[in-house]
DNA sequence: GTCTATAGTGTGATAGAC
DNA sequence: GTCTATCACACTATAGAC
């Protein structure tokens, strides 16, 4: 792995664990096994590195979601598979957590990938839900856009509950709760 | 307002806006109009002040919730009122955001009020939902615990979506989405 | 490309005068 | 109780040698 790649990977991990404010260039360098000069040679500074890290994380997340939502199965099956997919629940969502970082949200360049990822995710889920509704798999009165927002919110909020509780259990409860509401009627 | 009170209020605001890592004693003092000596006279340091601030916020939140959930109306009416209550959506949840702060979660004293607040909230909502189910207002097969987790997660995740989008709209969509699922069958 | 040296600022806290 | 002075350290970045 090249030095720039190692720096980006270090930044990704630290942004996930400690957020943007809590991540220092020094910590990034140490984790990557790179010196200061090296880091500032490849990147203009902390924001530049963070942009590379966030962009890469957003791309990976999108690909992972599309693998499930664009795969085989009925609409409800695909949504269920997405909700029940294995996750490192207590680590939280690497994109969602950036949302709480004022310095990220204040920088348009850093904010864009966060905004776009969630917009895409909601749209993609809404498409699948609309498909399920049109095929009679879901209630005819179901609002795909609102329900998609609910589902994404359950995941993001599930992470919050799990971290508060110190266990993944409330995350899984929240997921099963919304699936029961979705499938039951 | 006394100096200790002003310091606590400053800390509450800054924890909400910038989180624990992003909040410096200096910023707290400046916002409170207090000097360093004054701050360290009344509090032993940043963690001590944060504990006072978090405790106060948790107490207020609990009282606000109980006012609605313990008020008049059917179970669904009270849950709807709680979900639709006016909120400063883009500011996020002052307790939920602490969940993303590794230094808060690493300190058992700071973590406890966060953990207890969410545990209480889920239990309280589950009670109301069980009541609604037992009175035939909600589906007989509804799981109160899981559904309560779902509802709290929708709120917490709604904040995340709203901040990502830069507008409160997805928060309201998520809320209406879950209410539709809850009331429809 | 990578290194070390250095700078300027902020952090979190203590000391001791008033 | 509140003030100013001071501390040791970390942060983010630049300079210039190698």
From TrEMBL, chains A, B:
It comes from the Bacteria. The keyword Secreted does not apply. Residues 1-61 form the HTH tetR-type domain. Residues 24-43 bind DNA. The keyword Transcription applies. Gene3D superfamilies: Tetracycline Repressor, domain 2 (1.10.357.10). InterPro entries: Homeodomain-like_sf, HTH_TetR, Tet_transcr_reg_TetR-rel_C_sf, TetR_C. PROSITE patterns: HTH_TETR_2 (PS50977). Keywords: DNA-binding, Transcription, Transcription regulation. This is TetR/AcrR family transcriptional regulator. It comes from Microbispora hainanensis.
